[in-house]
Amino acid sequence: MENALKDWSEIAKNFLEGTAILVAAIWTIFRFGIFRERFAKIEFNLDCRYIGQTEENHIIELIAVIENKGLVRQNIKEWTFDLLVFKKGDKIDETESSINYQVKFFDKKISKRPWVPTIWYTTFIDAGTKQVYTYLTSVPNETKFITIYSRFIYPNTDDFHSSQRTFELESIAQHNIAKSNV
Asked: Is pLDDT above 80 for 176?
């Protein structure tokens, strides 16, 4: 009788251990395979705010917003932006295949400028947080449109994330003036 009870308890123990291993395996597959928790879940947006005008330039603030919707901290490196300017007299050119036949902006005001000082090397965004980075610059008064293109690289990989957005300078100026009068 005692041996039978011992055998049943051993069977129950083995069954529970096997079930626990199976549940852990299924959880791991769902968590890291199907829901892809090991991959970055970054939302990356660009914006522009009009500050004011001088005799020769418009002062603008470029804004990068990164939100980490994942469960782990994300480090980023080589985070740069380009600022392209389309002036009032520029002709529209949609013939360049390297930019997928989009309107070409001929004046690259800023090229591969870092969002954060290069001495920092990298920056990071903790899980579940949103960070805002800004860069104050100017564009000539004859500017009609601006395009911001930004990109960063995830450390230890060749993977990158990019964002691009175009603004009509007069529209953002009017929008910001209207907001400041409220």
From this structure: no
